[in-house]
Write a structure and sequence with these properties.
The protein contains 22 helices and 17 strands. By secondary structure, it is of the alpha/beta class.
C-alpha cells in the first residue's frame, strides 16, 4: 500500500473501501456470506427465546406412541379380545384411510373448526375400495371443512413446465368439496437461505416455472376455517416458535380410543380449533427441516406456517430491495468514518466503533423481537469490526515505527522468539546492530566429497536431483539448529554456519551444551535422511561438524546496499578448521578445549589429544563420547 498511497491517505482510503465493501456485499452477498448471515439470524432467534403459538392451533400427531399402541394389540396372545376397530392397522404406515376418517369424526365431534390432513392420498387405497369409501364418507359428513394434501412433482415429459400435480382419487375430491386441496411442497432448505413460508413455492416458484399458482396446504386450511392471513405469505420466512413439539399436541391413538378420549384433559382444547394431522415418526436419525432450534418435522412446519399466517408474525427481511438493504447496512459504518477526525485518540475511535456496533446489534435484535423484521446485521457489524482493526492497526503503526524497523532487521537473522526478547529493550537492540563482543559457540558443518559428487552429477545431467537433495538436507539441518536454540548465520554452498549465544545468550555453558547436542542431533537427522535416500536409490551424504567457543564480534556488517548480521573472529575460523579435521580424525564431531570445558559435567567428552590444525598449529581437540566415526564419501572434501 505504501508504494501506491502516501501514508496519510492510506487510512481514509481503506476506511472508504470498508464502506463500499459493506454496501456491495449486502446488496449481492455470495453464498458463503448468506450462510453466515443465516447462522447469525438463527442465533438471534435462539437468544430471543421460544414464543407462544396460537392456542387455537392444535397438532394431532401419528407418532411413535401411536404406532406402538397399535403394535401392542397385535402382540396380545390369541384368545384375547379382538383388536378394536379404531386400532386396526395403526401399527404401521401408511395407515388405513378409514382411520383418518375416524380421526375426522372425532375431531369435529370435539368442536374442531377445520382440519388439514398432511398426507398425500395418491391413487386408490391398497386396502381396497371399502377403505377409500370410509374416508370419502367422512369427508362428505364434514364437507368444506377438510383440507387435503397434494404434491407437485417434476416430470420428465413435455407437460406444462415439467410439473404434475399429485392429488387424491376422484371420489375423495368429490366428497371433500371444491377448493379443498393444498400443496405440501416447500422450497428445499439450502445453505444460506432461510426456511420460507410454503406460499413462496406455491405463488412464487410455480408461476416462475410457467405453471399456475396453487395454494399451500396451510392456506387451504385457513380458508376452510374462515381465517384470512394477516401477512403476505409469499414474501415471508417462517418464524419458528421453538423446537419440535412447541404446539399443543395430541397423540392420534389417544383421540381414536373412545375411552381414553372421553377423559382426556385436552379434549376441550379442540373447541373451534384449527387442526393439522399427520405422521411425526422417528426415522432413525433422518433429518427434517432445519430451524434455529434444530430439525423439525413436516407436520411441525405446517403448523408453524399456519400459525405465522394466523398471527401475521412471519419474518420479513427489511428493506426488501438489495439497494435498500445495502444503503441501510452502510449507514452506521459511514457515520463512524465521517465522525473520526485527524488527531482523535485511539481510545475515542475504538469507543465510537464499539458504541455504534452495540447500537446496531440492539436495534437489529429489537426489530426481530418487536416487529418480526430482520435487518442487515452481519455486514455492518463486520465493517465496524474492520474499522476498529484499522484504527488500532494505524495507531500501532504510528507508535511502533522504530520497533518495526528493528524487527525487520533482526528477523532476517534470528528466530522470531529471539526477536521478541531483543525488542523488549529497543535501545539495547540498536546497540546489537552497531556491534559488540559476545561469548558464543560457533558450529560449522560441511558435506564430505560434495564437490566431486557435484561434478559427477553435473556431467550426467542430474542437476535438479542434486539441488533437490541438497535443499532437503539443508532444510533438515536448519530445523535441528532452530530446535536447539541456535541461529543460522549463513550457508556457504553445502556448508552451514550456526551460532549459539548471538544475539541473545542463555549463558556460555548452556550455549556450548546446546551446540554439542545440536551437533549430535544433526548427525542423527542425517542418518535418517540417508536411510530414506537408500530406499530411493540416491547417494548418501556424510558430514563433519566442528565447534569452537569464545568471544567474537557480533554486528551488522556489509555495505549500505547489502548488510548482513553475522559474527567474525578467530573462533569462526577455528570451528571451520575443526570441521575439516573430522575427515582425518576418525570422528564426525570435533570441538575445541573451551567448548569441552564448558560442557563438562553435562555431556561426556573425551579427548582426541593434540591435532595439527591448519594455520593454528597443534591444539587439543575433543569429541562427544557418543560421536561415531563417519563413513566419508570417496574423494576429498569440498
Amino acid at each position: 500500500m505504501a508504494r501506491f498511497l502516501p501514508r496519510h491517505l492510506a487510512l481514509p482510503f481503506l476506511s472508504t473501501a470498508v464502506v463500499v465493501a459493506v454496501a456491495g456485499l449486502t446488496a449481492n452477498p455470495p453464498a458463503e456470506l448468506r450462510g453466515w448471515e443465516r447462522s447469525l439470524e438463527n442465533l438471534m432467534v435462539r437468544l430471543r427465546g421460544v414464543r407462544r403459538p396460537p392456542d387455537r392451533l392444535v397438532v394431532v400427531a401419528i407418532d411413535d406412541s401411536t404406532l406402538q399402541q397399535g403394535a401392542w394389540f397385535l402382540d396380545q396372545p390369541k384368545g384375547q379380545a379382538a383388536i378394536p376397530s379404531w386400532a386396526q392397522g395403526i401399527s404401521t404406515l401408511p395407515w388405513p384411510r378409514a382411520r383418518y376418517g375416524d380421526l375426522l369424526d372425532r375431531l369435529f365431534q370435539s368442536g374442531a373448526s377445520a382440519v388439514a390432513l398432511n398426507v398425500v392420498f395418491e391413487g386408490p387405497s391398497n386396502r381396497g375400495a371399502a377403505d377409500d369409501a370410509a374416508l370419502a364418507d367422512a369427508l362428505r359428513r364434514h364437507k368444506g371443512r377438510v383440507a387435503l394434501a397434494a404434491e407437485m412433482l417434476e416430470t420428465r415429459d413435455h407437460t406444462v413446465a415439467g410439473l404434475t400435480l399429485v392429488q387424491p382419487p376422484t371420489p375423495l375430491l368429490q366428497a371433500a368439496g371444491p377448493f379443498n386441496l393444498g400443496l405440501t411442497n416447500t422450497l428445499p432448505p439450502t445453505q444460506g437461505e432461510p426456511a420460507f413460508h410454503p406460499e413462496v413455492y406455491s405463488r412464487g416458484v410455480l408461476p416462475a416455472s410457467g405453471a399456475d399458482a396453487y395454494p399451500s396446504l396451510s392456506s387451504t386450511l385457513l380458508l376452510r376455517a374462515g381465517i384470512h392471513s394477516r401477512q403476505r405469505d409469499e414474501q415471508r420466512q417462517l418464524n419458528f416458535y421453538g423446537p419440535e413439539g412447541r404446539f399443543e399436541r395430541v397423540s392420534a391413538w389417544e383421540m381414536l380410543d373412545p375411552d381414553r378420549w372421553s377423559r382426556h384433559p385436552k379434549r376441550n382444547r379442540l373447541q373451534n380449533a384449527v387442526v393439522v394431522v399427520g405422521p411425526v415418526v422417528s426415522q432413525g436419525g433422518a433429518a427434517g427441516t432445519p430451524s434455529p432450534y434444530g430439525a423439525i418435522s413436516g407436520l411441525e412446519l405446517l403448523a408453524t406456517a399456519s400459525a405465522n399466517s394466523m398471527l401475521g408474525d412471519g419474518l420479513v427481511p427489511w428493506p426488501a430491495s438489495p439497494l435498500g438493504r445495502a444503503l441501510l447496512a452502510m449507514v452506521p459504518v459511514l457515520l463512524v468514518v465521517l465522525s473520526v477526525r485527524a488527531g482523535m485518540g485511539l481510545g475515542l475511535r475504538l469507543g465510537l466503533v464499539g458504541a455504534t456496533l452495540g447500537l446496531v446489534v440492539v436495534v437489529a435484535f429489537l426489530a426481530l423481537v418487536q416487529a418480526q423484521v430482520w435487518l442487515p446485521l452481519l455486514t455492518p457489524a463486520t465493517g465496524l469490526v474492520l474499522l476498529g482493526l484499522l484504527y488500532g492497526g494505524d495507531a500501532y503503526l504510528r507508535e511502533e515505527g522504530e520497533r518495526r524497523r528493528l524487527r525487520r532487521t533482526f528477523e532476517r537473522y534470528v528466530a522470531p522468539t529471539v526477536v521478541a526478547e531483543i525488542l523488549s529493550d529497543p535501545a539495547a537492540a540498536e546497540g546489537i546492530l552497531r556491534g559488540r563482543l559476545l561469548p558464543v559457540t560457533v558450529l560449522f558443518t560441511d558435506l564430505k566429497g560434495f564437490t566431486q559428487l557435484t561434478q559427477q552429477r553435473s556431467g550426467s545431467g542430474e542437476i535438479e536431483l542434486h539441488v533437490r537433495q541438497l535443499n532437503r538436507y539443508l532444510g533438515e539441518m536448519v530445523e535441528v539448529v532452530t530446535a536447539h536454540g541456535g541461529t543460522i548465520d549463513k550457508f556457504i554452498g553445502d556448508a552451514v554456519m550456526a551460532v549459539f549465544g548471538s544475539p541473545i545468550s542463555r549463558g556460555s555453558r548452556e550455549e556450548a551444551v546446546a551446540a554439542l547436542r545440536c551437533a549430535q542431533a544433526m548427525r542423527e537427522a542425517l542418518a535418517g535422511l540417508n536411510r530414506e535416500w537408500a530406499e530411493e536409490g540416491l547417494v548418501p551424504f556424510e558430514n563433519g561438524i566442528g565447534l569452537a567457543s569464545g568471544e567474537v564480534i557480533v554486528g551488522q556488517i556489509g555495505s549500505p546496499r547489502r548488510m548482513e548480521f553475522t559474527v567474525i573472529g578467530d573462533k569462526v575460523n577455528l570451528a571451520s578448521r575443526l570441521e575439516g579435521l573430522t575427515r582425518t580424525a576418525g570422528v564426525s564431531i570435533l570441538c575445541d578445549a573451551t567448548t569441552a570445558e564448558l560442557a563438562q559435567g553435562s555431556l561426556e567428552i573425551r579427548s582426541m589429544g593434540e591435532q595439527q590444525v591448519k594455520g593454528m598449529g597443534a591444539i587439543p581437540v575433543f569429541t562427544p563420547a557418543e560421536a561415531q566415526a563417519g563413513a566419508p564419501l570417496q574423494g576429498a572434501g569440498s
